[in-house]
Design goal:
The structure holds two protein chains of two kinds. Chain A is globular. Chain A contains 20 helices and two strands. Chain A is an all-alpha fold. In chain B, 76% of the residues lie in helices and 3% in strands. The longest helix of chain B is centred in the C-terminal third of the chain and has 36 residues. The chains are: A mainly alpha, B mainly alpha. The interface between A and B is medium-sized, with 32 and 32 residues.
Chain lengths: 493, 493
């Protein structure tokens, strides 16, 4: 499809761009700052609606001369990003003091736009464009706590690591271009499969693949490019941390799935020499990365006392679990990865929202602030426990279903060792999640004034918490509709 | 019908939730009310249960998660119905033993009812997935019940219990998925898996059996996975110890009999001798450890380990390749009866430990002395329970132990003879404990202890009557299970 025709299918993105511009202009002209979060929310709702409509109609086409792919898969991710961004805005509304400027909301919208582009990119250049849009906005959002040294430091660290990862990725992309003379993903996949003359090039191809993986792996905080994650998550404003922990991560997985499921010869009918061997070799590397990611994340989380850092390491571990789906390169694996992301969105953002409320009330994010919390604010304590146990993956909560699908895919593909290492990691993770629960419920402080700051939770908090917790419950026992949507989006049956 | 039985306790949860936190009495009576109905229903179920068939009865089957072919599939046979009877019985008694709970009464009873639902579900589920979900549902309430309402080292005990059990469960999850994917069409239905049990042969299924065995052995608890139990028991509040010993441990044995043996008979044959050895280690080593204990509750906890060894020994006889029905049937009958009998007896023992702890605020056996003159009724009840646990003829413990020995003698002669010595050791530690607590000079500190009161008697007497009745006339229980036992024995062959 040519550029002009494509525009009508680009409506969700146009809404976002328009919204971002409008937010800035509205601030300049009308100056009614209080309305801006709500406007942002509406922009996201409209974008969500348009995307959902397209998903329902089953739109499947290539836009902008094939650089952007629009199908169920990308639309599903767009919906996910809208939800994540929308919830982040809701977070921010509940913040009483207004130290964030309007550019914050505009940046959030642009960042969402970047996520849209990243998840739908079908061309290496487009991938880079999307990735950088997300990254630059994220750098700014992380550093948006003005006058806070930690926030600035986190922003700077993010920029430096990010630039480095981008550099390596673009080098990998250049190698691809050099090897096959094309930037388009489908053409690349074709070229990889149909170029049997490639003997010595396997090494170059592997290097290129690995370099590109560094760029994507950076977004999902996979080992060994995870070091930025705890520092950035700790320094960023908590609502941004929550956003970063789900949305760019989901986009990273979207592009990983699109890139590697296209490129790595996953199906036996592909006819490059030693294709099976090459595939196996790549899968082993991915398995090692997956196991390392979850293990490093879990082990490092064990000793954290700062809850934002703890959740940062836990999110690294979760990236490791999700990567298991990429190892097996089966449809089941892809389905499991895609299913895990919305579930993770609700449980992880829910946990962050609790952290955020406590931070708002006490200014602290340390685990010691949570001592006896369950007895002081039972509602918050129960909900936090639910989020954390869902993160562990205990039934009947949604996190269990996410893990179940992943392990099912891994076992179905006979990667038993990987499955065993995965579940053992789950047991390790229980320990640090349970530490928080323990602090909340088991450590009853001597000076427990029962029901002291109960009033601190306003109605808005309660509603938002329910928005997070209800899916965690419902998806744990009744996830068939979600699976159906995902199957439809992935074109599976 | 079974659905009602399972979820009846959950109906109490919203009721309790809306009661004022201070209305301790109303909350307690609400749980009594719901559990009493549940108990009445199970007794009714018992009267309409057809003992002439080994088929599953009261079957309910609905599709739950079509994407995974998971069914909401319930049903009981002789083995199940015995456990279904035991669960509300022990839970009912447990409520009266929880009368003294004054901290967080609402939370306590809500968790108590959730626990009840989980255990009931485990004994009714015929779909492995459903079984697993219910199995895990018992975990969280237990963690909190021990961790919040327990003794001085409650946090350590609770997390140890949690980690051990979760480790077992994840192994179970893996084996469950492996079973699921190895049959076509994929299914979690236990009867369906039993039908194709002949396909599960070879080393990998032996490993699967071990995985499953570890999962269940942790719950039993079998040596060397037993170390969580003394801690959990010692720290848990009385009623929770009663439930742990009375029902939760039975879930492990139940799982082995319901799932491991009939689905993986081939591996079970290879594992029989090891299981018998573990059984005898449990019996003898457990008894020796019991003897060394100074804390009454810890002593009873170790004696539980010892007595659960009989179940393992009985099961191992059935697994032995080429065992005749003459040996297998009594052995398995003994093992199953032991589950029920030990449930009642251990329940009594922990109630007794609770009674003395409520009065003296410690459980150091050596710290008492001559109590028989001050608390004659209590001394009498204790003697009765101790004798029952010793396996004195005329009390139900004797029946199950003698059946196991009868079955085991021809198959594992040496092992059986060694395990009979466990009975002698049991008599030794119980008599010694009685001597230290009740005989000899009165410890002046405790001269004013009130004797056992009516409420406490009310918890002990029903269990005592069952123990006495089944000890004199075990036929009703044996008739109830005999058809299912025969069926199981043929399945394992």
């Amino acid at each position: 499809m040519n550029n002009l025709e494509s525009l009508k299918y680009f409506l969700p993105e146009i809404v976002l761009v328009g919204g971002a511009v409008f937010v800035v202009l509205f601030d300049l002209i009308a100056g009614r700052r209080k309305l801006i979060p709500y406007i942002t929310l509406w922009v996201l709702v409209v974008s969500f609606y348009v995307s959902a409509n397209m998903l329902a109609q089953g739109v499947d086409s290539s836009l902008f001369e094939g650089t952007v792919r629009l199908n169920g898969f990308t639309l599903f991710f767009k919906l996910l990003f809208c939800v994540a961004a929308g919830l982040t805005v809701l977070f921010s509304i509940s913040k009483q003091k207004e130290h964030q400027g309007i550019e914050y909301y505009a940046l959030l919208l642009i960042s969402t736009l970047g996520l849209f582009i990243l998840s739908s990119a079908n061309d290496l250049l487009m991938i880079y464009l999307g990735l950088e849009t997300v990254s630059i906005c994220s750098y700014l959002l992380v550093a948006s706590l003005k006058g806070t040294l930690k926030s600035s430091e986190a922003g700077l660290k993010y920029v430096i690591y990010g630039a480095m990862a981008s550099g390596i990725m673009i080098f990998g992309m250049a190698l691809f271009y050099g090897l096959y003379g094309t930037l388009s993903l489908p053409d690349l996949a074709n070229a990889v499969t149909n170029t049997p003359k490639f003997g010595p090039g396997i090494l170059t191809l592997s290097a290129a693949l690995f370099m590109v993986f560094v760029g994507f792996g950076y977004k999902i905080a996979a080992v060994p490019v995870h070091m930025w994650c705890p520092d950035v998550y700790e320094g960023a404003p908590t609502e941004i941390t929550a956003f970063l922990s789900v949305a760019p991560k989901a986009a990273g997985f979207a592009i990983l799935i699109r890139f590697f499921f296209n490129l790595i010869p996953a199906v036996p009918e592909l006819n490059i020499p030693n294709s099976a061997q090459f595939q196996n070799y790549w899968q082993t590397i991915m398995a090692v990365i997956s196991v390392l990611t979850m293990t490093v994340g879990n082990l490092a989380a064990l000793h954290q006392t700062n809850l934002k850092r703890l959740l940062a390491y836990s999110s690294i571990a979760h990236a490791g679990y999700i990567l298991m789906g990429l190892v097996v390169l089966t449809q089941g694996g892809m389905q499991a990865m895609v299913l895990y992301l919305p579930i993770y969105l609700f449980m992880n953002m829910g946990a962050f929202f609790v952290v955020y409320i406590i931070e708002r009330l006490t200014g602290q994010v340390d685990i010691s602030e949570y001592e006896g919390l369950g007895w002081r604010m039972p509602f918050l304590g129960v909900l936090m426990a639910i989020f954390l146990f869902s993160l562990v993956g205990l039934p009947p909560l949604a996190g269990f279903i996410g893990k179940l699908y992943l392990f099912a895919a891994v076992i179905d593909a006979h990667w038993y060792k990987l499955a065993i290492l995965g579940v053992l990691n789950g047991v390790v993770s229980l320990y640090y999640y349970a530490r928080i629960v323990k602090a909340m419920w088991l450590n009853v402080p001597e000076t427990a004034a029962p029901g002291a700051p109960r009033s601190a939770l306003n109605a808005f908090d309660v509603i938002l918490l329910l928005i997070f917790v209800i899916p965690v419950f419902v998806l744990g026992v009744w996830f068939t509709p979600l699976i159906q949507i995902i199957n439809k989006a992935l074109g599976l049956h | 019908m079974l659905t009602l039985l399972i979820f009846l306790p959950m109906l109490a949860v919203p009721v309790i939730l809306f009661l004022p936190a201070k209305a301790h009495k109303t909350i307690r009576w609400t749980t009594v009310f719901f559990t009493a109905i549940q108990l009445a229903l199970t007794i009714y179920l018992l009267t309409i249960y057809n003992t002439k068939t080994a088929d599953f009865q009261f079957v309910e089957k609905y599709s739950w998660i079509p994407a995974f072919n998971v069914e909401y599939y319930l049903g009981v046979d002789g083995l199940g119905i015995l456990m279904v009877l035991l669960t509300p019985l022990i839970c009912f008694v447990g409520i009266f033993a929880s009368w003294g709970i004054s901290k967080g009464v609402k939370g306590y009873f809500i968790l108590y009812m959730i626990l009840n639902t989980g255990m009931m579900g485990v004994f009714c589920a015929l779909d492995f997935f459903l079984f697993y979900v219910f199995w895990e549902v018992t975990l969280l309430p237990m963690y909190f019940l021990i961790g919040i309402w327990g003794g001085p080292r409650k946090e350590y005990a609770a997390i140890k219990f949690f980690l051990y059990t979760l480790f077992g469960s994840v192994l179970m999850l893996l084996v469950m998925l492996a079973l699921y994917f190895s049959v076509t069409p994929h299914t979690f239905s236990i009867p369906e898996l039993i039908k194709v049990s002949s396909t599960f042969k070879g080393t990998s299924w032996f490993l699967a059996f071990i995985g499953l065995y570890i999962a269940f052995a942790i719950k039993v608890p079998a040596f060397p996975f037993h170390t969580w139990l003394p801690d959990a028991h010692t720290e848990a509040p009385t009623a929770i110890s009663v439930i742990l010993a009375g029902i939760l441990l039975k879930m492990g044995v139940y799982g082995i009999i319901r799932i491991s043996l009939p689905i993986l008979p081939d591996a079970a044959h290879s594992f029989a001798l090891i299981m018998a050895l573990i059984g005898v280690i449990n019996i003898v080593y457990g008894a020796l450890c019991t003897m060394a204990q100074k804390d009454l509750k810890r002593m009873i906890a170790y004696s539980s380990i010892s007595h659960m060894g009989f179940c393992l020994l009985g099961i191992s006889v059935v697994c032995w390749l080429g065992v005749s029905a003459d040996s297998a049937i009594p052995a398995l009958t003994g093992a199953v009866l032991q589950m029920f009998n030990h449930g009642c007896i251990a329940g009594m023992l922990f109630l007794i430990a609770g009674v003395i702890y409520d009065r003296a605020h410690h459980r150091d056996i050596n710290g008492f002395g001559g109590l028989a003159s001050r608390m004659p009724l209590y001394a009498g009840m204790t003697t009765f329970a101790f004798f029952a646990s010793m396996g004195l003829p005329g009390l139900s413990g004797f029946i199950s132990e003698i059946l196991v020995f009868m079955g085991g003698f021809n198959v594992f002669t040496t092992i059986t003879i060694i395990s009979v010595s466990g009975v002698v050791l049991t008599a030794g530690y119980f008599l010694w404990a009685m001597q230290r607590m009740f005989l000899g000079p009165l410890n002046e500190k405790y001269k004013d202890l009130p004797d056992i009161n009516g409420r406490e008697m009310f918890t002990l007497v029903p269990l005592g009557l069952i123990v006495l009745f089944l000890g004199v006339y075990p036929m009703p229980a044996i008739n109830l299970i005999s058809e299912s036992i025969k069926n199981l024995v043929t399945l394992v062959k």
